[in-house]
Amino acid sequence: MTPRDDEPDGSREAVPSRRRTPRGEPATYRITVDLDDAEPRIWRQLAVASSLRLDALLHDVGDTLLYAYDFGDGWDHTVRLDEVLPLPDGGAPARCTAGARACPPEDCGGTGGYEDLLAAAADPARLDPDERAELDHRLAHYFPSVPRSGIAAAATEFDLDQVNTLLARPPMPKPLADLLVRAHGPGAGDLIDLIERAGLDGPVLLDTAAAARDGVTFARAALQTWP
């Protein structure tokens, strides 16, 4: 390995680790998560168990850490510890208590790409025909259920109850979780949408009469093929 120009002897001072010994007794951490460089501000306040690997990095009120999501788009977040509270019995492991503005869609180009997308949606007349056609395609992909006239308003929305409904869902089955880990690019967002629409955590309603008929049909077919 060739030494760096600013390190003629090849030595490099080790960066001290910020990891600390986890708390002896788990607590509730009230944290604020800000999406860096977003204007207007996009943020969430969460109440989470300290045992969610946070107590190795966040110990004291005011401590912060940086979290990078999707190295392609580069969604950078600042996580700040606001308060340490007793851990209640039961309840969801994570709960959202406040926030502002909608979460940007996946794979839209990071904070800058998202702001450019909203600006183009608000003033498509400044684009040439080819650019407008491309914009229509992107808007249909990123906001499939929102008309163009409502995109600006949708970007300002924050539904606290909807967020907590998502947080309270049971863990995703491992095969699906593994599939999402392997997915990347624009297809990953489509896969997430399909899983959401499938309602895998909802009840399965069976028509008992139809199930009985299908069972009889299957039994007859099996008997006919019996050697």
From TrEMBL:
Signal peptide: none
Spans annotated as Disordered: 1-25
Residue ranges of every copy of the Plasmid pRiA4b Orf3-like domain listed in the record: 51-130
Pfam families found in the cross-reference section: PRiA4_ORF3
Annotated PANTHER family: LEXA REPRESSOR-RELATED, TNPR PROTEIN
Protein name: Plasmid pRiA4b ORF-3 family protein
